[in-house]
Amino acid sequence: MVLSRTTTESNEPVSSTFGSRYALTALPKYEIGESSIPKDAAYQIIKDELMLDGNPRLNLASFVTTWMEPECDKLIMDSINKNYVDMDEYPVTTELQNRCVNMIARLFNAPLGDTETAMGVGTVGSSEAIMLAGLAFKRNWQNKRKAEGKTYDKPNIVTGANVQVCWEKFARYFEVELKEIKLSEGYYVMDPEKAVEMVDENTICVAAILGSTLTGEFEDVKRLNDLLVKKNDATGWNTPIHVDAASGGFIAPFIYPELEWDFRLPLVKSINVSGHKYGLVYAGIGWVVWRTQHDLPDELIFHINYLGADQPTFTLNFSKGSSQIIAQYYQLIRLGFEGYKNVMENCRENMLVLKEGIEKTERFNIVSKDVGVPLVAFSLKGQSFHSEFEISEMLRRFGWIVPAYTMPADAEHITVLRVVIREDFSRTLAERLVADILKVLHELDTLPSKISRKMGAEDFGNVKGKKVKREKLMEVIVGWRKFVKDRKKMNGVC
Predict the structure, then answer these.
(1) Residues 325 and 377 in one domain
(2) Do 214 and 126 reside in the same domain of the chain?
């Protein structure tokens, strides 16, 4: 047997990483090391430490794609060294991005002719896409106010309190007031009536969510559009709509084609979607498309020529990899409409299987809806002596990552667990998860309640032999959930 050996600059032979001094030496954490180490040792040590990460396939907290076909993996590696911004050097990659923009815009029913080019851009995710869309709305509103001789220093956006944290970032970073519609128990999306009531002359747009992060529910964009048309006719404001379809944009066209939420509605001026969610591409790709070229102010587009030919650019960053753009094009032509429809139908069916299994435990209330992003959000029933956070923590012993979190403003007393059904979550895994949830529940039933310890013996007494008033018990449960929430901030669940 041949034993391969490498030699460092100090002529130290390394026949095995675990037999070398590198297995005994602490790696640099805060300052770069003084000397080099062999490549195989560096690889093995880093790989070993990464074993402590969770398994991406079992990360049911995330909407982001964790599996792609090997052929696409190869394409990604073949293009990993291409900088997308070098459009003159990589014109084919630029052409593939433009094809993706056109396909997605037409998927969303943009009013385009057969040969007309869509207006849109690839981004690193929906967060950047939302920033760009928001900037376009702000600039259009400012230009309109200037032309009318009115003040333009107090723009606002109307959203539901269920929006993803990137909307809060946009409002704070670009000095736009965020007017949020509070939620209520049993209704965890933006109320269109309340949203339109909050619109005023300084509203640059109303943001509707096609697939709430919290429950997966689609907001009623059609109802919002109809109400806003009436208000615009009465006031002359012409307030537009942006649809945040980060999660639902690659779902609704395939399995809910009759649902009107996109450019079929006249006030929808821009839509963002995450390619790295149900677009079925690894993390790092999003898209934003506009209804027409007039909806994106030309003054926001920069033109550069120091990389070769004149290149228009509208992004927040500059350099970025080409791999995810190429992977998105692969999925669009590989799957086609039929393939995407099959994947989304499978996700919906497996969601229903999981929901049925959780309902059969008779321990949970289902919070999510059947129509929407394929996920199951559920909370413990009634006077449970344990919390959703305990269930989430104990499921990690089986490898599952299932988040527990509290709802936003005016529904903070509701705590839920959420399981996102992705392409690679099969029926077998759904059945296995239900079995593991049952194991956790049975174990919790044998453990003392953290709630009882928090109350104290004088308040709680012997749980088995003494009844506790519902009001007192609920007060303590809410207090416990707030205590856990303060320790585990989950507002940015994505």
Answers:
(1) no
(2) yes
Q: Are strands 203-209 and 156-160 parallel, antiparallel or unpaired?
A: parallel
Among 335, 355, 388, the domain boundary falls at: 335
The dihedral built from the CA positions of residue 393, 394, 400 and 403, taken in this order, carries a sign that is negative
Q: How far apart are CA 468 and CA 460, in angstroms?
A: 7
Distance CA(486)–CA(224), nearest Å, equals 34
For 115-131, how does the pLDDT look when each residue is reduced to its tens digit (9 = 90+)? Answer: 899 999 999 999 999 99
Q: Are residues 437 and 308 in the same domain?
A: no
| Separation of alpha carbons 160 and 97, rounded Å | 32
In this structure, what CATH number is given to the domain that contains residue 271? 3.40.640.10
Please report the pLDDT score of residue 493 as a whole number: 42
pLDDT at 37 over 80: yes
Between the CA of residue 83 and those of 97, 233, 321, 448, what are the distances in Å?
13, 47, 5, 56
Residue 263 CA to residue 187 CA, distance in Å, equals 26
Cα separations (Å) of 360 from 335, 365, 395?
35, 11, 18
Per-residue pLDDT, averaged over 286-307, amounts to 88
39 in a structural domain = no
Mean pLDDT of 454-477: 45
Q: Is residue 394 part of a domain?
A: yes
Chain mean pLDDT for the chain: 89
Residue 177 has pLDDT above 70, yes or no: yes
| CA 165/CA 168 separation, integer angstroms | 5
Question: Using an 8 Å Cβ cutoff, are 491 and 165 in contact?
Answer: yes
Find, among 73, 117, 74, 127, the residue nearest to 95 by Cα: 117
- CA-to-CA separations, 187 to 67, 181, 218, in angstroms, rounded: 33, 11, 12
CB 179 within 8 A of CB 156: yes
Nearest CA-CA partner of 119 in 255, 292, 266: 292
For residue 102, pLDDT over 90 is answered with yes
- Say if CB 216 and CB 369 are below 8 A apart: yes
Looking at the DSSP assignment, which residues form a beta bridge with residue 373?
none
* Same domain? 366 vs 402: yes
Q: What domain range is 196 assigned to?
A: 75-335
Q: What is the pLDDT of residues 423-451, one digit of tens each?
A: 999 999 999 999 999 999 999 999 887 65
Q: What is the DSSP string of 286-310?
A: EEEEESSGGGS-GGG-EEE-TTSS-
